[in-house]
Design goal:
Blueprint lengths: L11 E7 L6 E6 L4 H10 L7 H9 L3 E7 L2 E10 L4 E9 L8 H16 L5 E3 L7 H5 L19
Parallel strand pairs: 5-6
Antiparallel strand pairs: 1-2, 2-3, 3-4, 4-5
Helix pairs in contact: 1-2
């Protein structure tokens, strides 16, 4: 992680928790997804696609990243991107559809929020673009709509 200021071994397991199914144990791990897994998970979650080269660059420049694993299968992820001092954006909060509705998005957000609150400056501006109805999840972590005083805007490179 180029900009990361946290120890990254690729196997830093934060927690285990039981799923709703008795035979499912999910592991939350501090690690960056490989590009194939990232693009596959985005597609499964209904998120927009990215060029493979762009995804490679973006993943390598993550400030912080967590993955949810069911045994060796990646079933969710979330990342922080930004400069780590003034601005950070919550990105790529994805839970595979087969595992949605079990509070796993909340587990991802808890890990990202913990990093923000313990490892980044208190004055950092944290933003995100929320897909509806996921905005309700983010509200649980203190995020509020900024309109009408400011509006989120976006565009693609070309």
């Amino acid at each position: 992680m180029a900009a990361a200021n946290w120890p990254h071994t690729g196997n830093d397991t934060l927690t285990y928790f039981r799923g709703r199914q008795a035979d499912m144990t999910i592991r939350l791990s501090e690690q960056i997804s490989d590009t194939d897994t990232y693009l596959s998970l985005r597609a499964a979650g209904g998120l927009s696609s990215y060029d493979r080269d762009a995804a490679d660059i973006g993943l390598k420049n993550s400030l912080y990243s967590v993955m949810l694993l069911d045994q060796d299968r990646t079933i969710g992820m979330g990342r922080l991107v930004g400069d780590g001092g003034c601005f950070v954006q919550v990105a790529d909060i994805i839970v595979h559809p087969d595992f949605q509705g079990r509070g796993l998005g909340k587990k991802i957000m808890e890990a990202l929020t913990s990093f923000i609150e313990t490892r980044l400056p208190p004055s950092i501006y944290v933003s995100l673009i929320a897909d509806v109805p996921a905005n309700h999840l983010y509200e649980q972590f203190g995020f509020r709509e900024t309109a009408p005083s400011s509006l989120g805007m976006a565009r693609r490179g070309r």
